[in-house]
Write a structure and sequence with these properties.
The protein is mostly helical and 175 residues long. It is 56% helix and 10% strand. Strands 1-3-2 form a three-stranded antiparallel β-sheet. The N and C termini lie far apart (54 Å).
Length: 175
Amino acid sequence: MVTEEQIGRARESLGRVVRGLWGRRRPPFGLTPAGEGEPRLGRRHIGLLAQIGVEGERSVSELAEAVGLSLPAASKLIRDLEERGLVVRREDPADRRRTVVTLAPETREGVHSWLHERDRPLRTALDTLTEEERAGFLKGLDALANAMLEESGHGPFRSHHRAAHRRRSHRHRPL
């Protein structure tokens, strides 16, 4: 039986984790400079950049699915990243209908360094656990993530896994 004390302790620890993750979400400014008049990169840009950095070369559709974006939205964000010199898009030589995206050679080392630094506390914490404790921790973390997803208003699927719906046109709406 789970006690209220255990729930409180878990909530407190998760709060510290979330604050720590929030502070580590952005790459260093030198990696993502904004030119004059250019807006800063948003969280979806950063999410795509991190996904490419971790997973390596991927197609635009694979990236869109991985981060929960529509294909047009992902394509626009990737174009923004490409314009800043952070990623490179090219035709897939094996299937010319596909466009693949990879980190730009000039920024690859910086992105990998940022990701490594971002993950340092996680690596340190997991390293203090035995293999059995690590397996239990990861199992619990998966259980929490699944329970939170089930409890969300969206059910067990991320928004991009649900069937698309269309709004009725404005002329059919009552005044």
